[in-house]
Design brief:
With 107 residues, the chain is mostly beta strands. It is built from no helices and 10 strands. The model has no long low-confidence stretch (mean pLDDT 95).
């Protein structure tokens, strides 16, 4: 499968205090800064599908606002019940002050 990098906004929009929700070609993702690193994971809890765009962040983890499942932003791993399946992760980078997300090529 081929992929492409898509500009999704200014690099300073990603923070370590709240997720940045973005959508590209129907793909919903949150981008989070953890220290100097950027992470992107799917914008839905694998337990019940709850969006994570308003979820709290703590120690490079996103916490589902509905049932409190914790996910590692680095790996997508589900760290606490009730979630057991990992979040899908995506590559994200900062280039020339812009955030770029690697997404599957629709073609």
């Amino acid at each position: 499968m081929t992929a492409r990098w898509v500009d999704v906004g200014p690099a300073d929009a990603a923070s370590d205090s709240s997720p940045l929700p973005v959508e590209v070609d129907g793909l919903a993702v949150i981008i989070v800064r953890c220290g100097q690193d950027l992470y992107a994971v799917e914008d839905r809890c694998t337990h019940d599908g709850e969006p994570l765009g308003e979820a709290p962040l703590e120690d490079c983890q996103v916490i589902c606002p509905r049932h409190g499942a914790h996910f590692c932003l680095r790996t997508g791993e589900a760290l606490t019940p009730p979630a057991y399946e990992p979040l899908r992760t995506y590559r994200v980078r900062s280039e020339d002050g812009r955030l770029q997300l690697e997404v599957p090529d629709p073609g």
